[in-house]
Write a structure and sequence with these properties.
CATH superfamily of the domain at 244-416 and 425-430: YVTN repeat-like/Quinoprotein amine dehydrogenase
Low-confidence stretches: 1-36
Biased composition (Low complexity): 55-65
Protein name: Lyase
Largest sheet: 8 strands, antiparallel
Helix content: 10-25%
Strand content: 25-35%
GO molecular function, one term: lyase activity
Region (Disordered): 51-70
Distance between the termini: 54 Å
CATH class of the domain at 244-416 and 425-430: Mainly Beta
Radius of gyration: 27 Å
Strand order of the largest sheet: 7-6-2-4-9-36-35-34
Mean pLDDT: 92
Keywords: Lyase
CATH architecture of the domain at 244-416 and 425-430: 7 Propeller
Number of helices: 7
Shape: globular
Length: 599
């Protein structure tokens, strides 16, 4: 019995060894498969490259219906070619491969891009030479070296007027041009909406020619951009391409119904995007049959091959009562309402006010928005369907006269309409721009060209003006404690204003010579998110620790104008609104989302 037992044990052991040998190739294959999920990114010597950006783009997507002059017809649903971007960890690894047909682009600072149809195994990147490296730097570091002959005030005027639509020192802008060509470019930009003073045009043109040429010939002067950091391995970026190279996806809205609504400012279209499926439906904003392109401002873009901005879809806010979306049509004296259930637009006509701009709603279901040209704030009471206009004070008698004359001037044909000459103080155009509703219900407004803030007490209508000791307050938001956060456009600063102590505190941005367009405050998480537009980044600022994090965009020449934040998970949304869009990498606007990765 003992012998048999031992034999049985030995036989059993031998059987297991034989079985393991038979299964060894399968176990090896499984182990290789498990490891192959990770893409390993290395330099030529085999050292891992952390924070390498890996972008996955689908190769098979449904053919969209773009039969309406290259755009989706009204009410038609298409599917976007959704791209996903992740970053390698400290070991140079990233899990991004998925079943299906995809193209993968790997990008890392200092290395040449690599394209592949697979994101499995090892991938080595080749370093850039010195010329390629500096040419790859984002616009802000090139812009930082434009000194304007030592005239800092002139550079600020230039940045204020020439950097709010596109990146200023991109490869498209720093090409060789004659002084006369630069003058022509600047004069054309002034017709688009810039207000560079006439006396500054010739000096700026000469300095741009001289200093861009000097930088091209001596590129070693251009400093390296900020290095990408370890927090990137913990996030994922998703992009939904929409529109085309002529579109401008200006502002947008993250709605409680789960959709994201994006406005094409130049083609009067509203994109309703489902982030879960990638499907989007386009709704055309209606206009009167005799409406003219450019609305009451006239067609400023006569050189563009196509343009359909009769209304000028601009900024978005939603009603907390019924979810309907309110939109400022900057080219008309009106307020738009979009019924999210019926998908129909309602136009609320206004008898006064010029250039409806940024918009917010309050807890009483009132709609507040700035009127940028007439220096007013409008409030639309939904119960009475009536508008109330608040006149913000002029900075002097000359500005008061200009503002009073504007309604009469806008009765004239845009082709024959005289406009006040631009000066460095933008006299006649203080431009109320950003607006927000504080937790106590107070209304806060930033006047971009006047360098001041306005506070409106809704119950009494009392207006208080506050000098802003920085340059270019563009958009602002209130945090949970009622502090007001403002971007100082030309100063590359984030600024906090405490309404109780009446103190300003400034925080230097973590990237140089950035011109921050806007911001938003995550009140639940105590974070301020700031739009970078010259540096291909957006930035987060932790209010408690005063620490910054920088998030590079997955495309070059990525110009962002607004930020939306998900209350559920803190995901952050923005859009690429570079104008013209064809200068952006990929030549297509996108909606972008940054989400934390969940293990």
């Amino acid at each position: 019995m003992t012998y048999i037992d031992k034999t049985g044990i030995i036989a059993s052991a031998l059987s297991e060894v034989i079985m393991m040998r038979k299964l060894a190739p399968l176990f090896c294959l499984l182990a290789m498969t498990a490891q192959a999920v990770q893409l390993q990114v290395s330099d030529p010597e085999g050292n891992p490259i952390p924070q390498a950006m890996v972008t996955r783009t689908p190769l098979d997507t449904p053919t969209p219906d773009l039969s309406d002059d290259g755009y989706a017809p009204d009410g038609i649903t298409n599917t976007a070619a959704v791209t996903v971007t992740r970053f390698t960890n400290a070991q140079g690894q990233v899990d991004i491969a998925r079943e299906g047909k995809y193209s993968y682009r790997v990008r890392a600072q200092g290395f040449k891009d690599n394209y592949s149809n697979s994101a499995v195994g090892n991938l080595k990147l080749s370093p850039m030479n010195s010329q390629e490296l500096i040419a790859s730097y984002p616009s802000n570091v090139w812009l930082s070296q434009l000194a304007f002959g030592g005239d800092h005030a002139l550079k600020e005027v230039f940045q204020l007027n020439c950097s709010f639509c596109h990146q200023q020192a991109s490869p498209f802008m720093r090409n060789e041009r004659t002084v006369e060509q630069w003058v022509s470019v600047i004069e054309r930009m002034n017709t688009y909406g810039a207000r560079l003073p006439g006396d500054d045009i010739q000096p700026v043109a000469a300095l741009l020619q001289k200093e861009y040429r000097d930088l091209r010939e001596n590129p070693e002067q251009v400093p390296a951009p900020r290095r990408w950091e370890t927090h990137l391995a913990a996030i994922e970026m998703t992009e939904w391409p929409i529109g085309d190279g002529f579109s401008q996806m200006h502002d947008f809205l993250l709605h409680p119904n789960g959709f994201v609504y994006v406005g094409d400012n130049l083609f009067d279209r509203l994109y309703e995007i489902d982030p879960k499926t990638g499907e989007y439906t386009v709704y055309k904003v209606p206009h009167e049959g005799d409406a003219r392109v450019g609305g009451i401002l006239g067609n400023r873009f006569t050189l563009f091959p196509k343009m359909q901005n009769y209304m000028g879809v601009h900024s978005f806010a939603y009603s907390k009562k019924d979810g309907n979306i309110f939109i400022t049509p900057s080219l008309q004296q009106a307020l738009l309402e979009f019924d999210v259930t019926t998908k129909k637009f309602i136009t609320h006509e206004m008898s006064a006010g010029l250039y409806p701009h940024t918009i917010r709603t309050d807890e009483q279901d009132r709609i507040w928005f700035t009127l940028a040209l007439s220096s007013q704030v409008a409030m639309f009471d939904r119960e009475s369907a009536e508008f109330t206009l608040y006149d913000l004070p002029a900075r002097g008698i000359q500005e008061w006269l200009i503002l009073k004359a504007l309604p009469a001037l806008f009765l004239l044909d845009p082709e024959d309409r005289p406009l006040p000459s631009a000066d460095r103080d933008s006299t006649g155009l203080p431009m109320p721009y950003g607006i927000d509703v504080a937790p106590d219900g107070g209304i806060w407004v930033a006047r971009l060209y006047a360098n001041d803030l306005a506070h409106i007490e809704p119950d009494t209508g009392e207006i208080t003006m506050i000098d802003f000791p920085y340059s270019g307050p563009r958009r602002l938001r209130a945090d949970a404690n009622g502090n007001i956060w403002i971007v100082a456009f030309q100063n590359s600063l984030l600024v906090k204003y405490d309404p109780i102590s009446k103190d300003f505190t400034d925080y230097e941005l973590p990237v140089i010579n950035e011109l921050p367009y806007a911001l938003n405050v995550d009140r639940d998480r105590g974070t301020v998110w700031v739009n970078g537009n010259q540096s291909d980044t957006i930035m987060s600022f932790d209010i408690a620790t005063e620490g910054w994090k920088v998030f590079p965009m997955p495309r070059q020449r990525f110009f962002t104008r607004d930020i939306e934040i998900s209350e559920q998970d803190g995901a952050v949304y923005t859009t690429n609104s570079h104008f013209p869009t064809w200068q952006s990498e990929g030549a297509t606007p996108t909606l972008l989302r940054i989400t934390p990765l969940v293990d």
